[in-house]
Amino acid sequence: MLRRLFVGLVLGLIVGVLIAAGLMFGLGIRTFEGAFLAYAAAAVTGVLTGLVAGKPIWSQGGKVEAALKAVFGALLAAGGMFALRTWVHVQVPLEMLGPAGTGKIGELPAASLPALGAVLAMFLELDNTGEAEPSAAKAPAVEARKKGANGKARVATEVPADDEEEARPKRAKH
Q: Is there a single domain that holds both residue 106 and residue 149?
């Protein structure tokens, strides 16, 4: 469980830092001037985090799950941005990072997006339980159920269904 939390923390931080760096260095946005840009950036962070955290989109059978996580990740990240902008009034000095600036955590992409990505990815990693592999102790019990009391394999045949009766398996006679 701690390993999953750590993996989620690292993945979320990477996604959040990359998006914040794209906003700061690519678009020149050091602070969120309006709420729309803050929520849009948070939603993009949630989508990308949902695609890579937990069961990633490139894993076998992970496409539908990743799509659902991406949609709900966008909603949760936008809600998290609302919470940061509304209730968390912590001043964060990020002058040492160059263009990151200083301000409230909800106004700085370099502070808010990595935090949102990390929290969301940790939840998604904890939710991903993985595939349960059958243990060696359960294998003999499964084989015993496949065989009858005399050790021979049981064979079931289907009987055609009547209008009033359901189809019932009938044991083959040996």
A: no
Contact 163, 146 (CB under 8 A): no
Cα dihedral 58/79/29/112 (nearest 10): -80
Which H/E stretch holds residue 104?
Answer: strand 102-104
Cα 12 to Cα 16, 65, 108, 122: the distances in Å are: 6, 18, 17, 7
**E strand or H helix at 92:** strand 91-93
Q: What is the pTM of this model?
A: 0.70
The number of helix segments (H) and strand segments (E) in the chain equals 5, 4
Q: Are residues 101 and 150 in the same domain?
A: no
Contact assessment for residue 126 and residue 12, using Cβ atoms and an 8 Å cutoff? no
SS3 166: coil
Q: What is the pLDDT of residues 26-52, one digit of tens each?
A: 888 888 888 999 999 999 999 999 999
Q: Count other Cβ atoms within 10 Å, centred on residue 31.
A: 18
For tokens 């040492």, what's the residue?
Answer: 96
In the numeric block, which tokens belong to residue 60?
């076998």
Q: How many domains does the chain have?
A: 2
